[in-house]
TrEMBL record, chain A:
Organism: Neobacillus thermocopriae
Protein name: Ferredoxin-like protein
Pfam families: Fer4_ETF_QO (PF05187)
4Fe-4S ferredoxin-type domain ranges (all copies): 54-83
Superkingdom of origin organism: Bacteria
Automatic annotation (TrEMBL), chain B:
Domain of life: Bacteria
PROSITE patterns membership: PROKAR_LIPOPROTEIN (PS51257)
Protein's UniProt keywords contain Flavoprotein: yes
InterPro entries reported for this sequence: FAD/NAD-bd_sf, FixC-like, FixC-like_C
Family under the similarity heading: Belongs to the ETF-QO/FixC family.
Domain FixC-like C-terminal residues, every copy: 367-430
Cofactor(s) required for function per UniProt: FAD
Protein name as catalogued: FAD-dependent oxidoreductase
Pfam families linked: ETF-QO_FixC_C (PF26311), FAD_oxidored (PF12831)
Amino acid sequence: MSTKNLEEKQYLIRFKCDTKSHLTVLDHDICMTKCPDKICTIFCPAEVYKWEGTRMQVGYEGCHECGSCRIGCPYQNIKWEYPKGGHGIIFRLA
Amino acid sequence: MSEKFDVIVVGAGPAGTACAFTCAKNGLKVLLIERGEYPGAKNVMGGVLYRQQLEELIPEFWKEAPLERPVVEQRFWMMDKESVVTFGYKGLEWAVEPYNNFTVLRAKFDQWFASKAVEAGALLINETVVTECIVENGKVVGVRTDRPDGEVYADVVVLADGVNSLLSKQLGFHKEFRPDEVALTVMEVINLPKDKINDRFNLEDNQGCTIEIFGDSTKGNLGTAFLYTNKESLNIGVGTTLSSMIKAKIKPYELLDYLKNHPMVKPFLEGGESAEYLAHLIPEGGYHSVPKVVGNGVVVVGDAAQLVNAIHREGSNLAMHSGLLAAEAIVEANKRGDFSEASLNHYREALYNSFIIKDLEKYKDATHTFEKYPQYFKDYIPMLNRAASQFFTVDGTPKREKQKQIMKSMTAEKGTFRVLQDIYRAWKAVK
């Protein structure tokens, strides 16, 4: 079977996006000065986090709400809330 | 919404719904709050649901629940890069009632299960996030939601809010989980015609097969992969502890693609069409990670209480049973009119006397052992594959000589003492 890249995988999912992010990077300087790996940009299963040179871009719209970034951030630098009721990811199958 | 209920259950997954169902059946006034558009919209599972614990709640549920296939064969693969050592069991006693377990698609199953709680009398409210517990005089008396005027009161609040239980953390029942206490798992549902599934897995129409895959499926990291058969689709997924993912700098979706393209796996998926991609955390800290589960006016059930037996891939059944035990304690507390921690502690006692905590206790050091000593996944599985290859390749070497060579090659790399030490350590962790 054809392998889909992440972007194509993400297209398979239904999202109802809120206008406001449920994920907040508290201090972008910590990412810049203390976190050379920027590990959230690697392990996030939806590539929500993208480092843009001086700040972390947060594409919360594609978030699976798994919680990995909250637990995995080595500096507890991510404020993680649930999206507003009924919003966010909507799994249809499994 | 300033009405008062006997019980508020936060989260309409297996644990919360089982609890709401049982409380409602016993005549209590129950509010079941779900943050998703419908129950199951936020929930992910590899797909195996065990029969026993649900049957205790709903006899012969398999006659009406949206299930995929009863599992008749469980295979275990110890996989290397271009080979696999397999072990499994297929039994037709599992193909007939009452069955042993089923594959399910959670978005469908959870909606059905929640509808049973509603039939029993619970009030289900979707699309509502509980933002905090309302605490008065050291006692939980209700919840605050993200709806306008969204405060609701009850004698008991049941936290069934899943692996990311922000609510039990707010109450101080546990600290933030560590990356080695959770497994990050990604999966895909792949549509495939029924006859192709039956042919490839050697199944009849109403029979299912599960394959657990160790070794190269996680590139030797602590975790597993799985391949399960639904009616007309496959669930394929892979996960490792979040700490392993961080350490090895793994992108989970790349690991999933690696698995899907593995020569041992690929032929099963040929011609399939991806239908959904899902990620979720599994609480795998086990016995040592179970938080405080009872407080004044509050209990914690299911994933929120870390009730997952990772070794036996049991989770949803433990969730349901914990929900049932909590409900029984709540019903008793209701009769006494006492919702203090001491009164609700019957739930904790029942939980700790049940197979749930007994099983978690049995494997309490397993995750830690396998995380600390990666050789089991990294070295021994490839070693086992080499030994099997050597043993089954006919090349004129007498069999006794072959056995000697194999034993020698296994101990040569590590030394006899280290091998014995590794075997003893693994045995101790799972005995």
